[in-house]
Write a structure and sequence with these properties.
Layout: H1 4-19, H2 25-31, E1 35-41, E2 46-53, E3 56-64, E4 73-77, H3 79-86, H4 92-97, E5 102-105, H5 107-113
Parallel strand pairs: 1-4
Antiparallel strand pairs: 1-2, 2-3, 4-5
Helix pairs in contact: 1-3
């Protein structure tokens, strides 16, 4: 089981990957979103909250339990799945389709985010 620190490191690596989005205009557009973000790690019952802004994820707080407020982009998964997704060992579409990963966002945001996933 991934630790809270390993999950924080995975989010940092994801942020770095977003910042390096190639010059594909659709990927740059998705990376340039400015939205509140929460990532609930189910097995740790911990939520990272912050913003997706300027092509980076900035984690501003770590909370015990589920998210307290509804972020514009909401992720939920096990810690091991977060680490595997960021490391490229787990396919996002398959994980989402099987229910291992939950992603909730507005329709337009989902369309823009799909270029990154």
């Amino acid at each position: 089981m991934a630790t809270t620190e390993e999950c924080r490191s995975a989010l940092k690596k994801l942020s770095e990957n977003l910042a390096q989005a190639d010059d594909d205009s659709s990927a740059k557009g998705a990376a340039a979103l400015d939205r509140s973000l929460s990532c609930h790690i189910r097995d740790l019952d911990t939520t990272f909250v912050g913003r997706l802004q300027d092509g980076r994820i900035e984690v501003t707080d770590t909370l015990a339990g589920p998210p307290r407020e509804k972020a514009q982009i909401r992720l939920a998964m096990a810690g091991d799945d977060l680490v595997a997704l960021v490391d490229g060992k787990l396919n996002f579409a398959k994980a989402w389709a099987s229910g291992r990963v939950s992603l909730e966002a507005g329709f337009r945001d989902l369309l823009r985010l799909r270029t990154l996933l």
